[in-house]
Structure formats: C-alpha cells, structure tokens
Amino acid sequence: MNANHKQDFVDVAVLENIIEAQVIESILTEQNIPHRIRSYHDTAYDGLFQVQKGWGQLYAPHTYKQEILEILNDIRTYNNKT
Q: Which of 28, 59, 70, 81 sits a CA distance of 20 to 30 A from 5?
C-alpha cells in the first residue's frame, strides 16, 4: 500500500447535486486521486438533509484538497456558462 492510501481524509467540499458528484467522481477516478463521496440522502427523512445541506460531501487526503477544489471550480464554472 502506498503512502497516499494511508493519509487521513478531510472534508473538501459540499457537492451541489448528483450530476456534479458523478462528474467529479469520474475525473478524480481517471486521475487516480483518492476520494470518497457521501450523499446526505437519508431514506428515513426522504432526502430532507439534501435540501438543507447540499447533495453530499466530498472527502480526500489533505494533500489533494487544493487540486480537487480547482477541478470542482472548473466544473461549476463550466456549468454556469451553459
């Protein structure tokens, strides 16, 4: 196991919707950037927390945080232009 897999994961960003989550997931996987995505959806409350908090949370090692935020910013900028 390499050092990247031993790093603690930190909160990186709140994801706005499932499309954003799928796009960032694809890009990070393609670039071999370790990450986790957690949806705020809860069946007991039928997604109530997604309305209040956003779609979900993106976690990654601290060393990748700035790079991921730049990628996410590019995604959001592109989406706002279309």
A: 70
The answer on pLDDT for 36 being more than 80 is: yes
Domain count, the chain: 1
Task: Residue 73: give the domain boundaries.
Answer: 3-81
Buried b (16+ CB within 10 A) or exposed e, 34-63: bbebeebeeeeeeeeebeeebbbbbbbbee
pLDDT in tens, 55-72: 899 999 999 999 999 999
Nearest of 1, 2, 3, 10 to residue 61 by alpha carbon: 10
